[in-house]
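# nightly structure sweep
# worker-07 picked up a monomer target from the shared queue
# config: single-sequence mode, recycle default, output format = structure tokens
# input follows
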Amino acid sequence: MSKHFPAKGENEPAPPIRFEDLALFVQAADAGSFSEAARRRGLTPAVASSAVQRLERSLGIRLFVRSTRSLRLSEDGERYLAHARTALQALEDGRLALDQARGEIAGRLRLSAPSDLGRNVLLPWLDAFQQAHPKLALHLRIGDRVADLYRQPLDAGIRYGAPPADSSLVAQPLAPDNRRVLCAAPAYLARHGHPRRPDELRRHECLRYVLADSVHERWNFHLPQGVQTVTVSGRRVSDDADVVRRWAVAGHGLVYKSRLDVLEDLRAGRLVEVFPPGYGEPAPLNLVCAHRSLLSPAIQRLRDFLRERCAEFATP
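# output follows
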């Protein structure tokens, strides 16, 4: 059982709970470290530790079990964590409601996005969005590993594909009709020929990338007669999908990526579409949150903004 602090005298009031102490407790619990929680808030570890100790005195309980090498929540800390999150979210919702009443969105917006789409398509759009809302602070995480929206300090993620049916994640469609497209540089097709059927890809150099912690090498095509899956191979694999697109533009092989990722290359003639557009596997783009309560005014405004930009971008 968790150890409690010594009982206060009957007439001794409990110290008030400070917002900053509550926030540091939640961040220390998420990070498993006072040092990391302090770093995220621009404080020293000693200040973060003192804040959590002050919160413990206010509550009269131990929130963490500490040792020289580890930090973990106590039983009481586990019970209190959900309430602390709710309290912080309620305060943030109240502030956002006031901003919305003034027609403003403000505060911090923490996003994750895939590498290729993030760097080459979303980045200028997000710049424009922030310019339209100067009180908004944007924290952007770029990468192709799927971010954990429950554990990582993120408000939303921009992702291809719908969440699993058994997931509690909330997906807001941005480009629901987007599909993958098989393409290659004109120079590659001139050297190696133009494949006419999916099974011919086994004889080609196929550029692969890591998707959901495994190499994306089983390519699905939606043919008139049904879905056909081909296991492809090649000498180049990367955990950064932007690198794979660049390899394709340089003529190193065939690539199978979201149309949004390669649309400018197709329009400029740097890449050529190999199969008819309808053959591509669906790859809907969504703005994803961990829970519907996290759909803040800023997230909703961003969703509408990106939805409009995606529609404009994809229109011939």
